[in-house]
Each structure stands twice: as structure tokens, then as C-alpha cells.
Design a protein that fits this description.
Four Helix Bundle (Hemerythrin (Met), subunit A); 6 helices; 201 residues; two-stranded parallel sheet; single chain; mainly alpha
Amino acid sequence: MPKGRVNQSIWTPANIVTVIRVAALPLWLLLAQLSAPATDSVSISSVVVFVLYVLISLTDKLDGYLARSRNEVSSFGQFLDPIADKLAVTVALCYLLESDLTNSWVLLVILSREFLVSGLRMVVASKGVVVPASNLGKWKTAITMVSICSLLLVMALPQGVFADRLHLAGNVGMAIALVLTAWSGVDYFMKCWPYVIGKRS
């Protein structure tokens, strides 16, 4: 959520979009689990799952645009927006793991980083400090989302050269995302460490 004037109402357009994103995720997961992967032809249900996830991912940009254009900031939005992003990634990765399109190490690294950063934020916040996030976090989220979308599209396509190459591209993208995830986690840890050990207050 970008900086701007503090809005006393939680029901700003940006927050409404964020709430819709969170509410859509269980419905998306249910639809994904009911969909049939492609066999000899394109799976329409899997295409729908792919398109819906792309739309869910893009709403992160939409609520950011709405907040910037209206110059609105709310505590509710600052609380919910990062949670919505993490839920969107976690739910999709759990589904891909269930579908054998990713492995448990991907989920482990990404969730470990989120737990680490969340814990560090609580520690520094208790000291009245806000450690700004680096662009690494934005890049890792963007690449993770694109990789997830690629792997979801694989499920919609029949086996063949294009599907195989897309699967490879999705896995390569996920590997890059994992490197950025670990890197951003270490970067945030280094910034927060002086506050954790009490050298700064």
C-alpha cells in the first residue's frame, strides 16, 4: 500500500479489491481441484483456472493503482494487502504441489522466508522502527506469480513440445524466484539484525 493520506474508512476502492482477492482464493482452489488436466486436447476447465489466477494476480496491481491515484492509505489496507499476496502464492503452490508440478522445497523456502520476515517485522515494530522492503521482494513476487501462471497453463495444454518448454520455463522461473526469495530474506535479516540483538533502539 503506497504512502498517502490516512483514510479512516476501511472500505476504500483499493481495500475492496484486496478483500475480493482474498475471498476469491478459496473459490479458485475449489475450481482448480475440480478441473481436469489436459489429455489429447486443451482442457477448457484448466484454461479457466489459469485465466482466473492471472486475474487474481493482477488485482494486486489494481489495488495499488487505486490507492495511488486516490492518495489513500488505511491501516486495514496495509495489514491485508501483503497477506493477500502471500495467500495467493501459497494457495497456488499447494495446488501445484498436489498436482506434482512443483516440489515441497519450493513451498519450504518461500514459507520460511515469509515467517522470518514477519517475525523480524514484529521485533522492529515493537521498537517503533519500520525497515523498508527492498525491490528484491517485489521482483521475487512478480517472478513467482509468472512462474505459477506458466505451470498452471501447462495443465491446460496437451502434451507436446510447447507444453514441455513451458513447463521448463516455469521451473526455471521458479528457481530464479527461490534465489530472490532467499536473497531478499537475508537482506531483510541483515537490516533488522541490529534491532534484534539490541544494538539499536
